[in-house]
Amino acid sequence: MKVHSDGPDETTHRQGGESTEGPESALVVRYAPKSPKAAVLTLHGGRAEDVSVSRPWHLAALRMRPVLRAVATGLPSDGIVLGEVRYRHRGWNGGAAADDVLRALGELQEKFGPLPVVLVGHSMGGRAALHAAAHPAVRGVLALAPWLPAAEPAVHLRGQRLVVLHGDADRITGADDSVNFVLRARTAGAHAGMIMITGAEHAMLRRLTTWHRLATEIVADLLRDHPAKDGTVAEAIAPGAPAFLRV
């Protein structure tokens, strides 16, 4: 599956045609099949407070392009919409970034009808994805080195499938915060698990192939109509599983 990259004009290409999304759109479509059956959306990181305009050439946004390409290699050759969430601003700004995710999900449904969606978010994007996880379209969430403050809510995740990947050398967001969040999510009734990547840091550059391999496997599993009975996700979210698996 080929993921198209937009130029400075932010034109989005579709199989069988082309559409241009205005700057107010929260959804950027990178690949759209003729008969979509599901979707994967990536959400990049940001800052705690920053009302400057989020741009596609910012490093946080660029960091997620290889992740989306890697994930695409593990998906069926057709049938999966691939896209990104475009935030209005660079910061979390009291939850405004999570509101942008909900806008993107609404736009996705307007374009393609009701589709099951897997959200893949890094850092602030992981937090935004988890906030939006109760949306009826969301089938699962993969959070990469997410920013999860101690008071981050988890009660809305009952019944949801989610996996967190975090590096134990991360100095930007806390792996311990991710562990605590996953445990609270389990208590709330979520099918939640975590994988700790030894020696990996926040930017996902160290052990890059491990980040991509796990993301590819996990997203493919989360997209399934019925969860696989074995594999990484099943092991991580199994009842009685340890707080995290280490790789």
List keywords for this structure.
single chain; 247 residues; alpha/beta; 8-stranded mixed β-sheet; globular; AB_hydrolase_fold; AB_hydrolase_1
CATH superfamily: Alpha/Beta hydrolase fold, catalytic domain
Helicity, as a percent range = 25-40%
Domains counted in the coordinates: how many? Answer: 1
Write down the CATH topology.
Rossmann fold
Strand order of the largest sheet: 3-5-4-6-7-8-9-10
What is the C-alpha radius of gyration, as a whole number of Å? 17 Å
The first-level CATH class is given as Alpha Beta
CATH architecture: 3-Layer(aba) Sandwich
Shape: globular
Structural category is alpha/beta
Query: How much β-strand is present in the residues?
Result: 15-25%
Overall number of strands: 10
CA distance, first residue to last residue: 28 Å
The poorly predicted ranges are 4-20
Main pleated-sheet profile = 8 strands, mixed
Mean pLDDT: 90
Keywords: Hydrolase
Pfam families: Abhydrolase_6
Protein name: Alpha/beta fold hydrolase
GO molecular function: hydrolase activity
Layout: helices, strands, pairs:
Elements: E1 11-14, E2 17-20, E3 27-31, E4 38-43, H1 59-73, E5 80-85, H2 96-112, E6 117-122, H3 124-131, E7 138-144, E8 161-167, H4 175-187, E9 191-197, H5 208-222, H6 232-237, E10 245-246
Parallel strand pairs: 4-5, 4-6, 6-7, 7-8, 8-9, 9-10
Antiparallel strand pairs: 1-2, 3-5
Helix pairs in contact: 1-5, 2-3
Describe the structure in brief:
The chain has 247 residues and is of the alpha/beta class. 30% of the residues lie in helices and 22% in strands.
